Amino acid sequence: MEERRGGEHEMKLVRTEEAVGQVLCHDITQIIRDISKGPVFRKGHIVTEEDIPILLSVGKEHLYIWENDETILHEDEAAEILRGLCQGPNMKASAPKEGKIELTAGCDGLFLVDTERLRAVNALGDMMIATRFAGFPVKTGDKLCGTRVIPLVIARERMERAKAVVGTEPLLKLLPMRPKRYGLVVTGSEVFHGRIRDTFTGVILEKLGEYGCEMAFHTVLDDDPAAITAAITDMLDRGAELVLCTGGMSVDPDDRTPLAIRNTGADVISYGAPVLPGAMFLVAYTGDGRPICGLPGCVMYAKRTIFDLALPRLLADVPITADWLAGLGQGGLCLDCPECHFPNCGFGKGG
Question: Confidence band (pLDDT; 50, 70, 90) for 44?
Fold first, then answer.
């Protein structure tokens, strides 16, 4: 009889013919190429004389067995603990299988991950949590993460350490994105005087329409900061949950939209972002938390911009912070691929 390390605990290796009456400590899997893969015996099964030929037929000439006690956990029990550390509201979990559990989205929403605590758990060893990239919308049924306990058995104390690292808040969040009634202020003398056609409004209608948002207020104004300020304030007073301003966002002397937004009294979080296209993006919040955004001209003609990264957060009521914007630098360069595959690309996946 030999012994093997199972996490921090020993499991005994016995000849299959001598295993009658012993309890299996893990699933016995049979793989038939292009036909099936699945367990022929589950963990906890008590081996009988009739099982011996079957076990030998799947290549199991020896079996690992162990006697459970209060200090160790089987891989599936430990996987349930990892699931509990990850799972937040609006998520569904698979049944544990071979120490693995997957979480899927129970609704459409914005997926978020606490990356620091996730890294801390994965650094413990003998366990792992792998997630899809956070900060992007997901659909109902999309896979969010997979967890696995590496050894067949693991010390209960190690799982307690994982729980201490994570604390009481789940590692993952799935926040529903709520359609908002928004106002759109289109600025620019060239549009106001009819010298060019307004093509910005159509782009905004399409982008926000994908999320079911309603454009409740709309106006086209000259480059007059006082008039722009008044229009923003009026839309907010009339119940706009989000106000977007287009045009006048560069550093030219006659571009007045940033000044107009500041003059509303809103708190400007950032004017500028390390994202191309979209460097001249501005975001501000009113005293009651409603966002006002200044959108650079690239939003009108580029396939994907800073606005595509920010919009899901605006609709999920996740505050856009200067720190989050600063972190977009790595991955903030859109490569303008001939065929756009966003969000299945590196754009917006900052370090």
Answer: low
Give me 150's structure tokens: 């590496």
State which fold the 181-326 domain adopts: Molybdenum Cofactor Biosythetic Enzyme; Chain A (3.40.980)
- Reported as a single tens digit per residue, the pLDDT across 193-203 is 677 788 899 99
Across the range 287-302, mean pLDDT stands at: 95
Q: Which amino acid is at 234?
A: D
First vs last C-alpha separation in the chain: 50
Amino acid at 273: A
- CATH, domain range 72-175: 3.90.1170.30
Q: Which letter, b or e, does each residue of 175-204 get, where b requires 16 or more Cβ atoms within 10 Å of its Cβ?
A: bebeebebbbbbbbeebbeeeeebebbebb
